[in-house]
Amino acid sequence: MAPALLDPAPVAAPAPAAHLKQDLSNLAKSPLQRTYIGNKEGTIHMEGVPQFDDPYKKREWVKEQLAIGFQYWGKEGYAEGLSGHITVRDPVMPDHYWMNPVGVHFSAITTRNLVLVSPDGFVHPDGAQLPINSAGIMIHSAIHEARPDVQVAAHCHSLHGKAWSVFGKPIDIMTQDACLFHDNLAVYESFGGIVLAPEEGANIAAALGPKKNAAILQNHGLLTLGHESVAEAVYLFQSLERLCKVQLLVEAAAANGLKKKVIDDEDAAFTAATLQNPHTIYANFRPEMDLLKFERGHLFL
């Protein structure tokens, strides 16, 4: 008689791992230093935003950063006709700012065709003598006036940012990268047409409030700010653009029954304390800047 087959003994499911809650108490005080390990002697460092004693040297660095930022936008396909602008305060005359000329493709912008804008919104003789975008002046001048802490403002009509903006909602904090925007993202829930009146620029600045560094402009696009460098605003912009794409993909999957999980506020705040630092953001974007210099360095002169 053949032996009877026995049912295998049930195997207990492993207990779920406890949710680890981290804190900053035992970590480096510098957010950038938390992101890398050097040697024991402490002589290997990752550099943050460079500092300048000479405002004229800083001006040249700022203009190169601005040209790199635009060429990166060109590489990413953000160009959209006459739309899109980045402004950065001039280190020599801080009530003036540098800006791209209207009608020049992002990929073709160099330090030589950047325009210096005076406080009254007109082209200054010290920069390129080219026209500038009217809507850009209305938006950026209001932001620079309302936020003296901000050096840079960046706005254009990127594909996924435009698509998500039609919902008039923020993105969900669903991934580590999204923690860049934890308590750091506004939504301007209005669209009054192309921005040709100063009141609309003031409304956008008010929506950002005193501390947020990014905004979704309903039915319009994205806007980001930088405190220390053009790289900061450009990195925040490309991150928000990609996260809008992630959000659209997730919403499509969720519509078919998959449940999305967002990061809780405590974990998001812990991650944001490192990711949102201007020096960490600069270091995150530096590989893209170095690659562009390698590929097209002659175009920045």
TrEMBL record:
What the entry lists under InterPro entries is as follows:
Aldolase-II_Adducin_sf, Aldolase_II/adducin_N, Aldolase_II/adducin_N_sf
Tell me the protein's name. Class II aldolase/adducin N-terminal domain-containing protein
Q: Which GO terms describe its molecular function?
A: actin filament binding
Q: Give one Pfam family.
A: Aldolase_II
What the entry lists under SUPFAM superfamilies is as follows: AraD/HMP-PK domain-like
- Residues that span the membrane, as ranges: none
GO CC, sorted alphabetically, is:
cytoskeleton
Sequence ranges assigned to domain Class II aldolase/adducin N-terminal in this UniProt record? 64-248
